[in-house]
């Protein structure tokens, strides 16, 4: 196998594929990227057995073939090469070593047999639709902060994606929760998604597709079955297993009778919470909201650090109320609100609070209070 490729194109592709490869692997072949050169293009693929990425880039192929090379090492080499110029690759007849040359730099890497490289079993993906890159970006960004990292509740370790009804309108809905907060985001249902099953996209897959769409402005092809999902982004195809579990009935967690309405500027509110939380204890990060007519006092107390409070003007006309929240969770939610108004719907100091963007009905957040 012998080919040459522009360094910039190779670096971009390697950045995508090496990201999937775990730093520590008990199976050596999973540390490698597969390189396959044929007919004027190079395809690079990597997998961790649950997630597979394949990217194709143009290359000058003198003789075709395939080999595997250490993914992170190869990425580091190409990253450190001079900006301009081509990188030449050549493997020996037995495909046991790969020579990498650029200018006066010359590297030799050990290879592993291509037949050991695992391929994700092919299966039909009957449901297919397209999403704009910006739409998918919004769904992910507004929901993923609430994904649970608790491995015992594995069915919460991802974003629940499903077709639903919002009033009479069919929507594609993304939901994530860790038991303390919940994010629900929706957009009009794309053509072809009407009969899709409810699926849980794993946290790592969410992170990888988010990186890929950062560089894309076009549409993203999504195809899925009960067990797998595939994203096609420009020249990259990302295929992932789905979480095999049942997402809880999140609708039961969203309260509908919260009658006390607090409206506040989200940026001013977030800044006040952030400042006051400097005093909060590291373990609980608790802040207290004392709400009265037209005024909100954000405060925190800590035996070690002292106390802090800040007053804000707000729209509130119900009975006075005190409620406590984890400041980190509160900030995670307020950072998702892009409009000029943030609405908190509160029942009492012990019940879940609903938080919404007053200018955008597509997102809804639920936050559990805490004792302060």
From TrEMBL:
Function comment: Confers DNA tethering and processivity to DNA polymerases and other proteins. Acts as a clamp, forming a ring around DNA (a reaction catalyzed by the clamp-loading complex) which diffuses in an ATP-independent manner freely and bidirectionally along dsDNA. Initially characterized for its ability to contact the catalytic subunit of DNA polymerase III (Pol III), a complex, multichain enzyme responsible for most of the replicative synthesis in bacteria; Pol III exhibits 3'-5' exonuclease proofreading activity.
GO MF annotations, alphabetized: 3'-5' exonuclease activity; DNA binding; DNA-directed DNA polymerase activity
Residue ranges constituting the DNA polymerase III beta sliding clamp C-terminal domain according to the UniProt record: 252-371
Species per Swiss-Prot/TrEMBL record: Roseiterribacter gracilis
Keyword DNA-binding: yes
DNA polymerase III beta sliding clamp N-terminal domain ranges (all copies): 1-120
Subcellular location: Cytoplasm
Protein name: Beta sliding clamp
Keywords per UniProt: Cytoplasm, DNA replication, DNA-binding, DNA-directed DNA polymerase, Nucleotidyltransferase, Transferase
Protein family per UniProt: Belongs to the beta sliding clamp family.
